[in-house]
Amino acid sequence: MKTLDKIYDWGDRHYPKWLDIVRIALGLVLIWKGIEFIFNLNVLADYLNETGLTDEIGTSVFLTLFTYLIIALHLAGGICIALGIRTRLFCLLNFPILFGAVFLIYFRDNIFKPYSGFWLSALVMLGIICFFIEGNGYRAIERGKDGM
Asked: What pTM was computed for the model?
């Protein structure tokens, strides 16, 4: 049996029912952060202009597409995780984004300053790892191998 199948089987057998509330909250936080990212695109544009990354047209187009990919994955992933549809898939897709947020964006700043986004991003990343292992749970639209 593959290691990933063992993890899935363990997660399916050891899923407490209260964890569904945490899964729904995680999905809502991802939706909220996706919407917040949409409303704060000017901050990202200012940051990229300061670093000089947008000087070349190819890099600028790549960063724009990457930004929209992040927004789409946060919104679609948040909805699907909250509803319990392909939870493990969307956790896997959102993990690199949250890893980059935690270790590349927030970690280089002062993580102990008030209202730092580091702690929320780290907590969401831990939730993503948890639900990648645990799966959908009992209160999910999609059940079967990914659920109970």
From this structure: 0.78
